Amino acid sequence: MEREVAPIINDFWGRAEFPRKAVWGLRDLGITGSQFDEHGCPGMSNLASGLISMEISRVDPSVGTFFGVHSGLALGSIVLCGDEEQKAEWIPKLLSWDKIGAFGLTEIETGSGVALGLQTTATRDGDSWLLNGNKKWIGNGTFADVIVVWARDVEDDQVKGFLLETPAEGFTAEKIEGKVALRAVENAVLRFDNVRVPETHRLQRANSFRDTAKVLRLTRGGVAWNSVGCAMGAYEAARAYAIRREQFGRPIASFQLIQDLLARMLAGITASQCVASRLSALQENGKVSEQQAAMAKMYCTTRTREVVQWAREVMGGNGILLENDVARFFVDSEALYSYEGTREVNSLIVGRAITGYGAFV
User: Acyl-CoA dehydrogenase/oxidase C-terminal domain: which residues (predicted)?
Assistant: First the structure.
């Protein structure tokens, strides 16, 4: 990441393009699907997997998001919800990057209400299914070879998962323009007009939103680690700047106010690392709950939001220049703060566990 991505990422981020060639080296490290141990997956600990996410995002959260979508959401959906034949066919393809994956859940008008408000439909037609509807904010959506599409079965009203190979008749992917965060991620609006998917491409162990939630429970921990990495990148850039930047004849790192900001940043990062590490330990023992994953995502992204603000403050006006890196972390943190469950929605998941009352509506 430091050798191949760091020197070029500001340029790609500014042009809103994904640096595909620069990230290809990640494939050869053998870290894809790190937390899984099936069909050639590395079988690393959950902590090791989290640290990988953290280190990627420490250099660039856009690349961290790409990796999380491909290695976590797409591959994880197949591991958790596919049958043995589907695993044997698809996991090696995603591990080798012969196929790049995406995860199609979020919709244009649904957002946080996706559990009950999923509008994309799946209609059984003989030995295949017809998908109709729209998805939005789908990372890797412009270039993915296989997209895990979540749709509501019109017959039993349950959410099911489908492996859509692209290109496909009736399917279009339109890149979302005008983003101010995670600009190097190629998010897309996906449209399905009677897109036919064979029954063999329906995830056989995904029969309700509870199965979708299994994937999200796993990957929310990954987002917590991504946000820790984002905070670390901002902190390191701000610290380096404070040491080299001089005012009034000495480095600003020698000023009390700057040291106070750096100390606050480091404390927030350290606390978030502890929360994410504890979540990884719970995952390792198979004891993690939905509310614990939600709390980790909520807490770590909130602390990251604070850290990147203080990092920009250390730099003064120079903090808004892309060339100084902090500006990229500053705005990217806003996307991490919102995706895979906003802070508010995750807080309500925790609140329901605390009180026994659901307060979503």
Answer: 212-354
The strand pair at 128-138 and 188-198 is best described as antiparallel
Please report the DSSP string for 196-220 in residue order: EEEGGGB-TT--SHHHHHHHHHHHH
pLDDT for 26-59, tens place per residue?
999 999 999 899 899 999 999 999 999 999 999 9
Residue with tokens 């998805």: 135
CATH superfamily of 209-355: Butyryl-CoA Dehydrogenase, subunit A, domain 3 (1.20.140.10)
Joined tokens for residue 279: 């979540």
215, amino acid identity:
V
Give the up-direction half-sphere exposure of residue 179: CA atoms within 13 A in the CB hemisphere. 24
Of 1.10.3720.10, 1.10.540.10, 3.40.50.2000, 3.90.960.10, which CATH number belongs to 9-99? 1.10.540.10
CA distance 124 to 261: 58
Average pLDDT over residues 162-173: 97
pLDDT digits (tens, 9 = 90+) for 99-132: 999 999 999 877 656 666 789 999 999 999 999 9
pLDDT for 204 equals 95
pLDDT tens digit sequence for 306-352: 999 999 999 999 999 999 999 999 999 999 999 888 899 999 999 99
User: Higher confidence at residue 272 or residue 360?
Assistant: 272
Fold of 102-201: Butyryl-CoA Dehydrogenase, subunit A; domain 2 (2.40.110)
Domain boundaries, the chain: 9-99, 102-201, 209-355
- Which alpha helices (H) appear in the chain, and where do they start and end? 9-15, 20-23, 46-59, 61-67, 75-81, 84-95, 114-117, 209-244, 256-284, 290-315, 326-338, 343-355
Cβ within 8 Å of residue 18, ≥6 positions away: 12, 62, 66, 143, 184, 185, 186
